Amino acid sequence: MRPTSGGIKFKGKSILGLPPHEIVEAGVVMVPEGRRLFPKLTVRENLLMGASSKRPKPLWKETIKQVFDLFPVLEQRKDQNASTLSGGESQTLAIGRALMAKPELLLLDEPSLGLAPKIVEVLFRTVEELSERGTTILIVEQHVGHALRLADEGHVIENGTIRMSGPGSQLLENPYIKEHYLAVQSKS
Q1: Residue 87: what pLDDT?
Q2: Which of 118, 117, 73 is nearest to 95 (CA)?
Q3: Residues 98 and 30 sit within 8 Å (Cβ to Cβ)
Q4: Are 42 and 13 in contact (CB under 8 A)?
Q5: 70-93 burial by CB neighbour count: b if 16+ within 10 A, else e?
Q6: What are the residues whose beta carbons fall under 8 Å from the beta carbon of 48, sequence distance 6 or more?
Q7: Strand partners, 140
Q8: Which burial class, exposed, middle or buried, applies to 95 when counting CB atoms under 10 A from its CB (0-12, 13-18, 19+)?
Q9: pLDDT by residue (tens digit) across 39-87?
Q10: DSSP-assigned beta bridge partners for residue 14
């Protein structure tokens, strides 16, 4: 979709209107809501799809090892079709596929959607580890507490309008956020 106004720049260059493969080449990769795996391909084949552009292709062997180190379950299931994975395994595969493209900016759209609470905890620890390794991450997430604990900067968007912004730790302490997003009642 084309925006009605404004632009989108990454590292000082416009990426507005570029085809997806050129955006990936620029270093921006997205893990969409709903994961969108290739169900009839194996885990390994899905991962290799993430390394199909020019920039990451020469590094695929090193990168797949890094993904398997990060998500050991994917290595255990590398020969299984993606359709046989659980929800948490599917999400790790979607993230692993994105990491195969060697992103500088990783966009995560509702990564915890439909996952069990224990899996959500593991997922957010992994996101934190990726951030610590130097990957910039933009996350859209309903689990506000998890997202803000990790966020250097947070933005609360309501009905398409930014309601408030600030450091994640500061937003976690905001009474409005506590009451409306974290189910913490204010003492009156």
Answers
A1: 84
A2: 73
A3: yes
A4: no
A5: bbebbbebeeebbeebeebbbbbb
A6: 60, 64, 100
A7: 109
A8: buried
A9: 999 999 999 998 887 766 667 888 899 999 989 999 999 999 999 998 8
A10: 9
- Kindly state the DSSP code that residue 133 receives in the 8-state scheme: T
CB 79, CB 71: distance < 8 Å: no
pTM: 0.84
* Helix or strand run (H / E) with residue 162: strand 161-166
Q: Are 162 and 156 in contact (CB under 8 A)?
A: yes
Residue type, 133: R
Helix (H, G, I), strand (E, B) or coil at 186: coil
- Domains, the chain, in order of start with CATH, read 18-142 (3.40.50.300), 143-188 (no CATH)
Tell me if 112 sits within 8 A of 120, measured CB to CB: yes
- For strands 154-158 and 161-166, give the pairing: antiparallel
Tokens found for residue 69: 């180190």
pLDDT < 70: residue spans in the chain = 1, 55-58, 184-188
Mean pLDDT over the full length of the chain: 88
Q: Choose among 73, 99, 106, 68: nearest CA to 87.
A: 73
Residue 22, CA distances (Å) to 46, 101, 128, 146 in order = 20, 12, 27, 32
